Amino acid sequence: MSPPGRCLTNDVDKRTTSLGHVARRYHGNTGVNAASRPQTPASLVGDHHRTPAGCTLGNSLEKRRHGFCSDRGSWVTGHRSGQDGKWLLKLPAVTDPGPFVIRVSSSEGQVTLNDVLFGDVWLCSGQSNMEFPMNQVNNSEDEQQRALAFSTIRVFLTAFAKSDSPLDTVSTWHPWGPPTSGGIGGLSAVCWLFGEYLQPHLNYPIGLVQTSRGGTSIEAWSPPEAISVCPSNPFNNEPECCPQRPLVLWNAMIHPFLNMTIFGAIWYQGETNVGYPEAYSCQMKQLVKQWRDMFHNGSVGETSLDFPFGYVQLSALNPPNATQWDAYPDLRWAQTVGHGYSPNPDLPYTFMAVAMDLPDFSSPYGAVHTRFKQDVSRRLVLGALHVAYGRSDVTFQGPFPTLFTNDASQRALIVQYDYGRTPLDIRATNGFQICCASSSDPCDSHGPRWMEVPITKHGNSDVTLSIAGCSQRVMGLRYAWRDSPCELKKCAIYAADSGLPAPPYMTKTPVT
After folding, report:
1. Which terminal Cβ of the chain has fewer Cβ within 10 Å, N or C?
2. How many CB atoms lie within 10 A of CB 13?
């Protein structure tokens, strides 16, 4: 099923239907002395704004305000909605993406928004790998030049800020606008390329809101309702100066956007939380749930209560031949709340881009900051097309194990993928481990009983592992359970048709 769409504009939130229509909301504030100064649109609105197909205008009104939107040349009338001087006006959906000129006027004056488009708005958030800019990706000069052709993609970039209390306005680095030669290099590569690769599939405008900060925890981006559900918080005692403290980025860099209608969000974060997988698993589930609730309520129901949420599973760290910390696999598993795939019962209507096979060991920015952001964004787009836009014909997940068969006579374990429906591309014979023990007790992630087992042969949709070296029972199986499981795109298991990698996997269920 295709989700409702959202749109972009300057002071307008939009909502897009499955046909690409958008409904959006405009907000503004005239201030306390409304009679003495003209109304102003909200801080997130401006020229070159991207808005959903329907519009809602808001501001602070003493008298009637008039907004120009909806069908070209038509007028709508709004009323004051609160004693705080804020107003809201919802406009019907339109099929024409624009550009439009939107005017909001009253007896005190008029505000004009120029070059406003209607389309889907995606929020991009997380830490350094989301913040990683276009001018640092592979082939950066060519990528930046190509980006300039996408004038119907509009971007809004926040400045870093933190706060101990919720804010209604946001600090801005790059106000709404199309890509420019002087600005594209500093934009998030994952965010921009996601929009660039997605837009041709939609044929209508896209708005991208980048609000991210390197070196930050998931707790810092979480609302209090999420923090309260997950009491085990490793960052509670961080000093006031630190952006890892719970709530501080939610308050300053997410809360101001709640009254904007968004279509979906993409998230690339987790490195700061490595070492705390149990806490992260809880927090990830709650962040997705609470963001959905908060954006839905803040937009007066215009943002879908189950808006699509995409995320990137952590990439690699050190080269395979280097010392392995092996804490990344636990965090990758926690990102999926212990399922290994998305969407899942704990993370409905989500999609995940696997990135463990995209190491960049020679990156001048550190191996964890892979420059292969093009692959990351392409994988995210596949998930968005399938989950967010209802494209059931688009494959967005790599192979996943569904059946284990012990061949005692051959001392072999056969692992079948996707119930035998997905042809496999086997690119290596390593990557699997079994827990060889008499019970499951020593089979935690860092237990001593895990041993490498090679792929000895494979069928169309299965692989055979040699377990001849195990003299006890096979009490667990895992795949790609290393900080850096392989060289670039050379892990063992890929889908032959889509080229997508099998994600990391672990089970502690006895298989013999």
Report:
1. N
2. 39
